[in-house]
Write a structure and sequence with these properties.
Layout lengths: L1 H46 L1 E4 L8 E11 L10 E3 H13 L5 E11 L1 H12 L5 E9 L3 H6 L3 E4 L4 E4 L12 H20 L5 H8 L11 E4 L1 H5 L5 E2 L2 H17 L4
Parallel strand pairs: 2-3, 2-4, 4-5, 5-6, 6-9
Antiparallel strand pairs: 1-2, 7-8
Length: 260
Protein backbone atom coordinates (compact mmCIF):
# COMPACT_ATOMS: atom_id res chain seq x y z
CA UNK A 1 0.00 0.00 0.00
CA UNK A 2 2.73 2.37 0.95
CA UNK A 3 4.62 1.57 -2.24
CA UNK A 4 1.55 2.38 -4.37
CA UNK A 5 1.11 5.73 -2.61
CA UNK A 6 4.80 6.54 -3.10
CA UNK A 7 4.47 5.58 -6.75
CA UNK A 8 1.49 7.91 -7.19
CA UNK A 9 3.32 10.66 -5.35
CA UNK A 10 6.38 10.22 -7.56
CA UNK A 11 4.18 10.25 -10.64
CA UNK A 12 2.69 13.57 -9.59
CA UNK A 13 6.19 14.95 -9.03
CA UNK A 14 7.28 13.84 -12.46
CA UNK A 15 4.16 15.28 -14.04
CA UNK A 16 4.61 18.52 -12.10
CA UNK A 17 8.24 18.76 -13.12
CA UNK A 18 7.28 18.02 -16.71
CA UNK A 19 4.67 20.79 -16.69
CA UNK A 20 7.12 23.25 -15.15
CA UNK A 21 9.74 22.25 -17.69
CA UNK A 22 7.33 22.85 -20.57
CA UNK A 23 6.34 26.25 -19.18
CA UNK A 24 9.98 27.23 -18.72
CA UNK A 25 10.81 26.17 -22.26
CA UNK A 26 7.86 28.19 -23.53
CA UNK A 27 9.01 31.24 -21.56
CA UNK A 28 12.56 30.81 -22.86
CA UNK A 29 11.27 30.57 -26.42
CA UNK A 30 9.17 33.71 -25.98
CA UNK A 31 12.15 35.53 -24.46
CA UNK A 32 14.38 34.52 -27.37
CA UNK A 33 11.72 35.67 -29.85
CA UNK A 34 11.40 38.99 -28.04
CA UNK A 35 15.17 39.50 -28.04
CA UNK A 36 15.29 38.62 -31.74
CA UNK A 37 12.61 41.21 -32.54
CA UNK A 38 14.39 43.85 -30.45
CA UNK A 39 17.66 43.06 -32.23
CA UNK A 40 15.97 43.43 -35.63
CA UNK A 41 14.35 46.72 -34.60
CA UNK A 42 17.71 47.98 -33.33
CA UNK A 43 19.47 47.09 -36.59
CA UNK A 44 16.80 48.82 -38.65
CA UNK A 45 16.97 51.95 -36.51
CA UNK A 46 20.77 52.08 -36.43
CA UNK A 47 21.72 51.01 -39.96
CA UNK A 48 18.57 50.54 -42.03
CA UNK A 49 19.49 46.88 -42.49
CA UNK A 50 17.86 43.58 -41.60
CA UNK A 51 18.11 39.89 -42.50
CA UNK A 52 14.90 38.41 -43.92
CA UNK A 53 14.88 34.77 -42.81
CA UNK A 54 11.29 33.82 -41.96
CA UNK A 55 10.21 32.74 -45.45
CA UNK A 56 9.02 29.25 -46.42
CA UNK A 57 11.83 28.89 -48.97
CA UNK A 58 14.47 28.88 -46.20
CA UNK A 59 16.58 31.58 -47.84
CA UNK A 60 18.36 34.32 -45.91
CA UNK A 61 18.16 37.70 -47.64
CA UNK A 62 20.07 40.70 -46.34
CA UNK A 63 18.18 43.97 -46.84
CA UNK A 64 20.14 47.22 -47.24
CA UNK A 65 18.50 50.64 -47.63
CA UNK A 66 20.15 53.52 -49.49
CA UNK A 67 18.17 56.58 -48.38
CA UNK A 68 18.53 60.33 -48.22
CA UNK A 69 21.93 61.68 -49.26
CA UNK A 70 24.94 59.42 -49.71
CA UNK A 71 27.53 60.74 -47.30
CA UNK A 72 31.21 60.76 -48.25
CA UNK A 73 34.27 61.96 -46.34
CA UNK A 74 32.47 65.01 -44.93
CA UNK A 75 29.75 64.68 -42.30
CA UNK A 76 26.41 66.21 -43.24
CA UNK A 77 24.18 68.04 -40.78
CA UNK A 78 22.35 66.02 -38.14
CA UNK A 79 19.02 67.11 -39.63
CA UNK A 80 19.78 65.37 -42.97
CA UNK A 81 18.80 61.79 -43.77
CA UNK A 82 22.01 60.12 -44.89
CA UNK A 83 23.52 56.82 -45.92
CA UNK A 84 27.07 56.50 -44.64
CA UNK A 85 29.34 54.59 -46.99
CA UNK A 86 31.65 53.61 -44.12
CA UNK A 87 28.72 51.59 -42.75
CA UNK A 88 27.69 50.04 -46.07
CA UNK A 89 31.12 48.90 -47.31
CA UNK A 90 32.05 46.73 -44.27
CA UNK A 91 28.58 45.21 -44.29
CA UNK A 92 28.90 44.26 -47.96
CA UNK A 93 32.28 42.67 -47.24
CA UNK A 94 30.71 40.71 -44.34
CA UNK A 95 27.88 39.55 -46.62
CA UNK A 96 30.37 38.26 -49.19
CA UNK A 97 32.25 36.37 -46.48
CA UNK A 98 29.14 34.94 -44.81
CA UNK A 99 27.93 31.39 -45.43
CA UNK A 100 24.59 32.31 -43.91
CA UNK A 101 23.49 35.08 -46.32
CA UNK A 102 22.07 33.81 -49.63
CA UNK A 103 21.21 37.08 -51.39
CA UNK A 104 21.01 40.86 -51.09
CA UNK A 105 18.06 43.22 -51.62
CA UNK A 106 18.84 46.94 -52.08
CA UNK A 107 16.05 49.49 -51.52
CA UNK A 108 16.79 52.96 -52.88
CA UNK A 109 15.20 56.33 -52.19
CA UNK A 110 18.12 58.73 -52.56
CA UNK A 111 18.75 62.19 -53.91
CA UNK A 112 22.36 61.23 -54.74
CA UNK A 113 25.36 62.63 -52.92
CA UNK A 114 29.11 62.06 -52.82
CA UNK A 115 30.32 60.70 -56.18
CA UNK A 116 33.30 58.73 -54.86
CA UNK A 117 31.27 57.16 -52.05
CA UNK A 118 28.40 56.27 -54.38
CA UNK A 119 30.72 54.67 -56.93
CA UNK A 120 32.47 52.72 -54.16
CA UNK A 121 29.14 51.30 -52.99
CA UNK A 122 28.11 50.48 -56.57
CA UNK A 123 31.42 48.69 -57.28
CA UNK A 124 31.12 46.64 -54.08
CA UNK A 125 27.56 45.55 -54.88
CA UNK A 126 28.42 44.64 -58.47
CA UNK A 127 31.34 42.48 -57.35
CA UNK A 128 29.34 40.38 -54.85
CA UNK A 129 29.10 36.68 -55.68
CA UNK A 130 25.66 36.47 -54.03
CA UNK A 131 22.51 37.20 -56.10
CA UNK A 132 21.46 40.86 -55.83
CA UNK A 133 18.28 42.78 -56.69
CA UNK A 134 17.57 46.52 -56.39
CA UNK A 135 14.25 48.33 -56.06
CA UNK A 136 13.92 52.08 -56.65
CA UNK A 137 11.29 53.63 -54.37
CA UNK A 138 10.59 57.34 -54.59
CA UNK A 139 13.77 58.17 -56.43
CA UNK A 140 17.34 57.19 -57.24
CA UNK A 141 18.91 60.36 -58.52
CA UNK A 142 22.38 61.34 -59.65
CA UNK A 143 24.98 58.96 -58.16
CA UNK A 144 22.07 56.76 -57.08
CA UNK A 145 21.80 55.65 -60.73
CA UNK A 146 25.03 53.57 -60.69
CA UNK A 147 23.92 51.95 -57.41
CA UNK A 148 20.51 51.06 -58.87
CA UNK A 149 22.07 49.33 -61.90
CA UNK A 150 24.87 47.61 -59.95
CA UNK A 151 22.70 44.62 -58.99
CA UNK A 152 22.00 41.49 -61.03
CA UNK A 153 18.39 42.61 -61.60
CA UNK A 154 16.65 45.93 -60.98
CA UNK A 155 13.10 47.18 -60.42
CA UNK A 156 11.45 50.58 -60.15
CA UNK A 157 7.97 51.29 -58.80
CA UNK A 158 5.56 52.97 -61.28
CA UNK A 159 5.91 56.36 -59.56
CA UNK A 160 9.68 56.06 -58.92
CA UNK A 161 11.99 58.60 -60.54
CA UNK A 162 15.59 58.79 -61.73
CA UNK A 163 17.33 62.08 -62.44
CA UNK A 164 20.17 61.86 -64.97
CA UNK A 165 22.46 64.91 -64.97
CA UNK A 166 26.15 65.81 -65.32
CA UNK A 167 28.55 65.86 -62.38
CA UNK A 168 28.35 69.06 -60.34
CA UNK A 169 30.57 70.59 -57.69
CA UNK A 170 29.21 73.12 -55.22
CA UNK A 171 31.24 76.08 -54.08
CA UNK A 172 33.89 78.13 -55.87
CA UNK A 173 35.70 76.36 -58.70
CA UNK A 174 38.83 77.66 -60.44
CA UNK A 175 37.99 77.67 -64.13
CA UNK A 176 41.14 76.16 -65.57
CA UNK A 177 41.59 73.29 -68.02
CA UNK A 178 42.63 70.86 -65.27
CA UNK A 179 39.27 71.39 -63.56
CA UNK A 180 37.31 70.56 -66.70
CA UNK A 181 39.51 67.53 -67.38
CA UNK A 182 38.89 66.29 -63.83
CA UNK A 183 35.12 66.68 -64.23
CA UNK A 184 35.23 64.85 -67.56
CA UNK A 185 37.20 62.01 -66.00
CA UNK A 186 34.63 61.62 -63.19
CA UNK A 187 31.78 61.79 -65.69
CA UNK A 188 33.39 59.10 -67.84
CA UNK A 189 33.76 56.82 -64.81
CA UNK A 190 30.05 57.19 -64.00
CA UNK A 191 28.75 56.74 -67.54
CA UNK A 192 31.16 53.85 -68.13
CA UNK A 193 29.93 52.02 -65.04
CA UNK A 194 26.24 52.61 -65.84
CA UNK A 195 26.57 51.47 -69.46
CA UNK A 196 28.48 48.37 -68.40
CA UNK A 197 25.71 47.28 -66.04
CA UNK A 198 22.58 48.03 -68.09
CA UNK A 199 21.34 48.27 -71.68
CA UNK A 200 21.62 52.03 -72.30
CA UNK A 201 24.32 53.28 -74.68
CA UNK A 202 26.96 55.86 -73.75
CA UNK A 203 25.72 58.29 -76.38
CA UNK A 204 22.12 58.03 -75.13
CA UNK A 205 22.93 58.55 -71.46
CA UNK A 206 25.08 61.58 -72.36
CA UNK A 207 22.17 62.92 -74.39
CA UNK A 208 19.88 62.55 -71.38
CA UNK A 209 22.44 64.28 -69.17
CA UNK A 210 22.67 67.32 -71.42
CA UNK A 211 18.92 67.74 -72.05
CA UNK A 212 17.98 71.40 -71.51
CA UNK A 213 14.19 71.35 -71.77
CA UNK A 214 13.24 69.20 -68.78
CA UNK A 215 14.83 70.49 -65.56
CA UNK A 216 14.17 74.12 -64.66
CA UNK A 217 17.39 76.19 -64.63
CA UNK A 218 19.46 73.05 -65.06
CA UNK A 219 20.41 70.35 -67.54
CA UNK A 220 19.41 66.71 -67.29
CA UNK A 221 16.41 64.40 -67.53
CA UNK A 222 13.80 63.01 -65.15
CA UNK A 223 12.70 59.46 -65.94
CA UNK A 224 9.54 58.11 -64.25
CA UNK A 225 8.87 54.41 -63.75
CA UNK A 226 8.42 52.76 -67.14
CA UNK A 227 10.54 55.45 -68.84
CA UNK A 228 13.64 54.25 -66.95
CA UNK A 229 12.91 50.72 -68.19
CA UNK A 230 12.24 51.87 -71.77
CA UNK A 231 15.59 53.69 -71.81
CA UNK A 232 17.32 50.44 -70.83
CA UNK A 233 18.57 51.67 -67.44
CA UNK A 234 16.51 49.38 -65.20
CA UNK A 235 15.10 45.93 -65.93
CA UNK A 236 11.44 46.07 -64.96
CA UNK A 237 8.63 48.01 -63.29
CA UNK A 238 7.54 46.29 -60.09
CA UNK A 239 7.29 46.45 -56.31
CA UNK A 240 8.61 44.67 -53.25
CA UNK A 241 6.67 41.48 -54.06
CA UNK A 242 8.37 41.25 -57.46
CA UNK A 243 11.82 42.08 -56.10
CA UNK A 244 11.70 39.52 -53.28
CA UNK A 245 10.23 36.80 -55.52
CA UNK A 246 12.88 37.38 -58.19
CA UNK A 247 15.66 37.23 -55.58
CA UNK A 248 14.33 33.95 -54.15
CA UNK A 249 14.26 32.46 -57.66
CA UNK A 250 17.85 33.57 -58.27
CA UNK A 251 18.97 32.12 -54.93
CA UNK A 252 17.21 28.80 -55.58
CA UNK A 253 18.77 28.58 -59.04
CA UNK A 254 22.22 29.28 -57.58
CA UNK A 255 21.76 26.62 -54.88
CA UNK A 256 20.70 24.09 -57.52
CA UNK A 257 23.77 24.80 -59.66
CA UNK A 258 26.29 21.90 -59.77
CA UNK A 259 29.06 24.38 -58.87
CA UNK A 260 27.45 24.87 -55.47
Amino acid sequence: MGNRENSKHNGKDKEGKSNRSTKEEKRDEQEKQREKEEHKDGRIEATGQITLDENDRHNKIHLITIIGEIEGHDNLSSSSKTTKYEHILPQLAAIEDSKEIDGVLILLNTMGGDVEAGLAIAEMISSLSKPTVSLVLGGSHSIGVPIAVSTDYSYIVPTGTMVIHPVRLTGMVIGVQQTFDYFRQIQNRITGFVCEHCRISKSRIEELMMETGVLTKDVGTILVGQEAVDEGILCEVGGIKNAVSRLHDMIDKRKASPEN
